[in-house]
Input
Amino acid sequence: MIELTRLEEILLMAIFRLKENAYGVTIKKEIEERAGKKLTIGALYFALDQLFKKGYVAKSTGDPTPERGGRSKTYYNLTPNGIKGLECARELHANLWDGVSNIAIEKQDRE
Amino acid sequence: MNGNPLNPPRLAEWILSRIADPFERISILGDFGEFYSDMYSEKGRFKAWIWYWLQLLRSIPSFIRWLTTGSGAMLKNYIKITFRNIRRNKGYTFINITGLAVGMACCIMMLLWVQDELSYDKFHEKADRIFRTQVKIGDFALWASSPGLLAPALKRDFPEVEGATRMRPTRRILLRSEEQSFYENSFSFADPDIFDIFSFPFISGDPKTALSDPGSVVLTESKARQFFGDEDPIGKVIQYGDKLEFTVSGVIKDIPNNSSVRVGFIAPFKAYEKLDTRLHDWGRYDFQTYVLLRENTDPQQAGANVKDYLMQFKDGLNTELFLQPLTRIHLYDSEGMGDIIYVYMFSSLAVFILVIASINFINLTTARSGRKAKEVGMRKVVGARRKDLIKQLMGESIIMSFIAFIIAMLIVILFLPAFNSIAEKHLSLNIMGNFQAFTGLVSIVVFTGIFSGIYPSLVLSSFKPVNILGKAASAIKGGGVFLRKSLVILQYSISIILMIATIVVYNQIGYIRNSDLGFDREHLVYIRMNTDTFKQYFTIKDELQKYPGITGITATEALPTYMANWSYVNRWDGKTIDGSVRMNSCAIDRNFIEMFDMEIIEGSSFSEENSAESAVFIVNEEAVRQMQIDDPVGKRLNLWGRYNSRIIGVVKDFHFRPLTQKIEPIILRYHPGEFRVPGSFSYICVRLRSENLIDTMDKIENTMKGFAPDYPFEYGFLDERIENLYRAEKRMGRIFGYFAVLAILISCLGLFGLVSFMAEQRRKEIGIRKVLGAAVSGIVMLISREFIILAVAANVIAWPVAYFVMNRWLQSYAYRVDIGWMVFIVSAFAAVIITLITIAFQSVKAAIANPVTSLRYE
Output
């Protein structure tokens, strides 16, 4: 059973969705769009480094492109451990929300 | 900002590359760049730029967290332990940090001073191409004056000379605007090239044309305010004495304090030509000449080219011309010495004080290593490598030095105004925008931290855990006893050298101030003559003589603080030598010799009989010596081709210049005719009785005002003026004294810490000794002996160094004290006594302690 923090979950999910194209810029954009979470680049890399150290993601170096000033990218992709983490998260969510469709209505019903 | 979307701000990138994690640096920079170029094409350069910087700044906390995690736990522990140690050993930390802080503060102030001295004249954009001419005639020293014709001639005859100007600083002159009038001595005549050569920025007016009209004048901002208030000075008229009139054509910024060319007014040299009829004399060295060499000219080569230039105008005398770099003028005199010696002295003083403070740190840390050893042992047992320990211990000392640095900065801020007033400087702690100063300060901190931390950390980290934690624990008494002793000796030696230096400096100053000048300087008032008082001199003399408070009145061309009107004399009766004698000359009134209480050793003084009509001379002994005549009285001597007069007497040598210079030959000349030539005399000297001085001065002032109501009454006391000659020396002496005392105090502080530690360490030993019957005095001796030996040993090292250095310094004085053995004896005694006082408290405390308390646990 792997328990992820919310930030870790968001990041892993973003990397998962981006598939082959997960690197700093795209990850940042993805989490901004999907989760509305604005991280600074520094904070993003710090968090990614934590994921790497925990063994949820692997890194590979990509090709440099001109708009990056000729600097190469670091691509991230999920390790089996990372995927397992996401599955656990999903399971947790499912268990937690099982049978609850709308909190507001159900709360009213109880009263 | 950079125009290319692919080029983000370079400074920001640089910062980023410094702080980002090394493994991810490239991809982080890339991401920043990619965002930047997107932003650039969408929202424009400015927004992208702002974004980059904001993003960078906001990322910094994360980067720092990133860098410190991992090793973070240990780092936290190190810092915690450091502060815990500081708290636990308050006394010891206090000694360490105070010493370091005071040392650093001294060092910072010294370095500010040195930096200021070294910055002289460097603000000129072309500073490295500007030279002042110097002339050397025969065997005499170089001097910086040159003929008035030299500057235009050099410019004409040498292609490598781009510009040249003469400068003729005038003596005090009365300047008048419509409303104001002031005596000014900052008025100078110069060629228009002056603004090409020097960087004097114009506030208004055009540097190219400002001096092209002979009736124009350029003045500084503050002089403009002084004369014209807030009005626009351009076009206003300034009266120069009674002869000339100038129209303001430009205003320049005030000339910085660190400039050796300092003027308030610059008028065209053309205007001066009207005032001076003897301008075309190549033998008249009354001007300063500055030249600007063309770019890429080799100064050596240029110097060689001009060297013999003056020979064509001279017959006989070997005259050489030299080019002295502008930036050397302030610190080097003609023999390559000068104030640079103070720069060396102060720089070494700064380093010495820092070393003394660091030694305290080293000694106290190694002495206490026994205590620290347990911590080190424990760390090693749980896996710390030696490298980690060194890092930790160095880190501790750098933290200490940083804390000390913050305190030092506060001390500097507090005491800089006081230091400024002693040093007569305008130093400021302007670190921001002064990269040099900033790096200087940072290197002080790092140097101190590393210098004082390196040895303790090497020693401590080398301990073997088995020894520390095992049975032999009590055997660790703190390592490096030998080194500690050597360092104490070093500390002592430096302090003793400073002590001796201070004593010698003060002795020399005292010697200068109290030596017999050959005349009586007490109760003598000098009054500047102006046109009116000169005309009415004899009437004034009669008038003043009526006052009972006045014993004598005379007139002179120059005061015996600085008589420097000299020329070469080569014709006299009974001449037996070849060549000429450099002879000073001063016009005086008939009663000058008596008034100044000088001693006539041959012939007679001036009297009405021997000098009713023509000029007569009295020479000094040095003149007789150099002219090599046996019987000077009655001989005739030719001065300037104008006087061919009899020598009627010989006066005992007297000092008419500062004591840095040897007494030169001088002629005191009396010629009744000179009282009719305006400007022949500059001062009226009045000898007063010591009673009712104020009353008498009031009367003199009233009388003088009565004779010359249009002029200010300007006077001074001769003894004060003589004192003022040595102001620079006194100032240096005082600064040196203060810092020497501080250095000694810092070493005492360290000594105190060391003694208290040793006393504590030997508590049991002392307890046992007392139980076995040792007397208090015996125990005090036991503790003190070691330090006394060190103090004496240090003296032996310090003496030759101090002797060598101070002897060198004294060479700059023609008349100087012997260093003498007394100084050394005094310093030795002082060292021993200061040691005893410093350690007395702790050693007596240890000696009178009740042995029961120290032994009860056994």
Q: What stands out?
A: The longest helix of chain B spans residues 386-423. Chain B has a mean pLDDT of 82. Chain B touches chain A at residues 5-8, 20-21, 24, 26-35, 37-38, 55, 58-63, 65-66 (CB under 8 Å). Residues 10-69 of chain B form one domain.
